[in-house]
Design goal:
two-stranded antiparallel sheet; alpha/beta; 38% helix; seven-stranded mixed beta sheet; single chain; elongated
């Protein structure tokens, strides 16, 4: 890839689409460090979601066996033809990954990792699709807005902690492995970013995942209300029964949802 990415974009007449959150990275050292932080190598298959101009795609392809890159913007086709030229281990799929049938896709792909600079508008649904619907994803390293990264990795009792944090615990542990200033993107966004690495470790023990999900969403349905009130409203419990369940689980009757750890949510969902 001898030409500068900005030159290629200009020559191809590419126009950025704000609604798709298109911000590309051009610094090769940064791209290499993002791939290195993900831990992928040698014989791995990597799925990239939102490959954009292909700069991260190329960095991944130089390190692993196979890359399947998803992109919704078909006007990037001539750009990718140049930036990914000569790579025989890379396939670009012009399709919305959110609409992919996961069992069918995973039967064909086998085990894989996800490495991506996620478009901000699909961050949460994409992460939840992989948490809830994937059986063969072995790990996930995604660049997201820094504020979102803090939320994904938050601890119980902090303002950033929310339903998505507790849902991630069903399957993975996550941590911020790299912070990326807005100056590293083209065009420059209004926020800084961070790379979050998810380690799929089997997650916490839960008897009924559907019930756990319902309890978590009930707990955060109204953050200003106590957990007791949210359980009464969401599960049709009497106040006395809600108090009895909370007491049995060793949870303070005045506790709010954001103070519960995923393990406590698991015990509570089992009790319910």
């Amino acid at each position: 890839m001898e030409k500068d990415i900005k030159t290629i974009l200009t020559e191809c007449g590419f126009g950025f689409k704000k609604q798709l959150g298109q911000n590309f990275i051009t610094d090769k050292n940064l791209l290499s460090s993002i791939v290195a932080a993900s831990g992928v190598d040698g014989g791995d298959t990597v799925v990239e979601i939102g490959c954009g101009a292909g700069t991260l795609t190329r960095a991944i392809a130089q390190r692993v066996k196979r890359v399947i890159a998803f992109e919704v913007d078909k006007t990037l086709q001539p750009v990718l033809a140049q930036t990914l030229s000569g790579l025989e281990n890379t396939e670009v799929v012009f399709r919305d990954f959110l609409k992919v049938n996961m069992p069918e896709f995973e039967r064909e792909t086998g085990e894989y990792f996800v490495v991506a600079n996620l478009p901000y508008y699909v961050t949460t649904p994409l992460i939840m699709k992989l948490i809830e619907d994937s059986d063969k994803c072995k790990g996930l390293s995604v660049m997201v807005q820094e504020e979102v990264a803090e939320r994904l990795c938050a601890s119980a009792g902090t303002p950033e902690y929310g339903a998505i944090t507790a849902m991630i615990a069903l399957k993975a542990e996550c941590k911020i492995v790299k912070r990326v200033p807005r100056t590293m993107f083209y065009p420059r966004p209004n926020v800084d970013s961070a790379v979050v690495k998810f380690t799929f470790n089997g997650g916490i023990e839960v008897t009924d995942k559907a019930k756990y999900k319902k309890v978590v969403h009930a707990a955060f349905s109204s953050r200003r209300k106590t957990l007791e009130n949210n359980l009464v409203n969401s599960f049709g419990l009497t106040r006395a029964r809600a108090q009895e369940i909370l007491t049995d689980c060793g949870i303070d009757l005045k506790a709010r949802g954001e103070t519960l750890t995923p393990e406590q949510f698991s015990r509570l969902s089992d009790k319910l």
